[in-house]
Specification:
There is one protein chain. The protein is built from nine helices and twelve strands. It is of the alpha+beta class and 344 residues long. The strands form two sheets. Strands 1-9-8-10-11-3-2-12 form an eight-stranded mixed sheet. Helix 3 crosses helix 4, helix 4 packs across helix 9 and helix 6 packs across helix 7. This is Gap junction beta-4 protein.
């Protein structure tokens, strides 16, 4: 469940108000930002104003500006002796909408902590972490994970229409098989079948459905590069039947990072990840609740501060979203829980 904005004073009573603390200090005791430079968040010239960020409605800008001016309070939930710290969140820059945005944004949000990883490298680290965790999971947990995968990528098209207008089925086609697949589709077209129906038939028969853990790992490895082993085929359906077939003939489609991938990132770096969703008027939420937090926690210990990602909301997919951007988090003295924009 996401954590919407609320009255931070309502939860302040549950938090001790310690003497002023910061999350990092240099030898001189100055406040440090995540990349090691002394920062005064109230006068940080590097912070991008939310007025300058494209693609936001006024109510989104106002909600996000509160995160930058007032900050959010966080405390390590697994260390009862840990002191709260406030993070001031500003926009970390645009990233390309090429399907790799989760990983590109995460590299930017983590800064030096990403240890030289690029988006493709971080994607592969995420997949490797998933396979390690899946290998050590019990049969019940593995079954639950694979049920989630089937629900997202190989849904039962007999149901779900009360929630979704369009449902997608993801299939993997080996790049080396594309010529044979095209020939098989052409054969059906030559005997009178419509091209789209022929493509659906051949792809469903000969391609790999994304319906279990190992196949999810193959799917999530796809970055739209010529080095990928597979191409992503997407079949779109409405309640009335097939809507479209995205054959991805150029092989540029990348696997969009999902909640499973985010949790794997949290496990890999032993950090909490907060996805900040900012919804516009089309999401049917009031302005007070248009910005909220979706937390993803690592399985084991938390060894570092959280990092934050922005997900711009769109109403058509049920208040979901389709693009990640990085948020820059500067830490500072805890003034008072009542004065922050939100308590995580």
């Amino acid at each position: 469940m996401g954590k919407p904005f609320g009255d931070s004073a309502a939860v302040a009573e549950t938090l001790p108000v310690p003497s002023p603390v910061i999350s990092w200090k240099d030898p001189k005791g100055e406040v440090m930002d995540p990349i090691g430079a002394a920062v005064d968040p109230a006068r940080d010239d590097r912070a991008t104003s939310w007025q300058e960020v494209r693609g936001l409605e006024d109510q989104q800008r106002r909600g996000l500006q509160r995160l930058q001016s007032k900050g959010v309070l966080w405390r390590n939930p697994r260390d009862k002796s840990a002191q709260p710290v406030v993070f001031y969140l500003s926009h970390g820059g645009d990233v390309s909408a090429d399907g790799n945005c989760l990983f590109t944004a995460s590299v930017k949000a983590m800064g030096a902590a990403a240890r030289g990883s690029d988006a493709r490298g971080l994607r592969l680290r995420t997949v490797n972490r998933f396979l390690e965790d899946l290998g050590s999971a019990g049969s019940k947990e593995r079954k639950e994970v694979e049920e989630v995968i089937r629900h997202m990528y190989s849904p039962d098209l007999k149901g779900g229409w009360g929630v979704h207008v369009v449902q997608e089925v993801k299939l993997l086609a080996k790049k080396s098989d594309r010529v044979r697949l095209d020939s098989a589709i052409d054969e059906l077209v030559q005997i009178g079948m419509q091209r789209e129906m022929a493509a659906e038939s051949i792809y469903k028969e000969r391609c790999i459905p994304v319906n279990d853990g190992p196949i999810w790992a193959k799917y999530m490895s796809i970055s739209g590069s010529v080095d990928d082993e597979h191409d992503i085929i997407t079949l779109q359906y409405t309640e009335d039947g097939l809507l479209s077939v995205d054959e991805n003939r150029e092989g540029h489609a990348a696997a969009f990072g999902d909640d499973i991938a985010i949790e794997c990132l949290a496990n890999e770096f032993k950090r909490e990840i907060f996805v900040v969703q900012a919804h516009g008027s089309d999401a049917v939420v009031d302005e007070e609740n248009c910005v909220f937090f979706l937390p993803h926690s690592p399985r084991a210990e938390i060894c570092d501060s959280p990092f934050f990602l922005l997900m711009k909301g769109t109403g058509w997919c049920g208040a979901g979203a389709d693009h990640y951007e990085p948020l820059t988090a500067h830490s500072s003295f805890l003034v008072s829980p009542e004065k922050v924009a939100a308590v995580l």
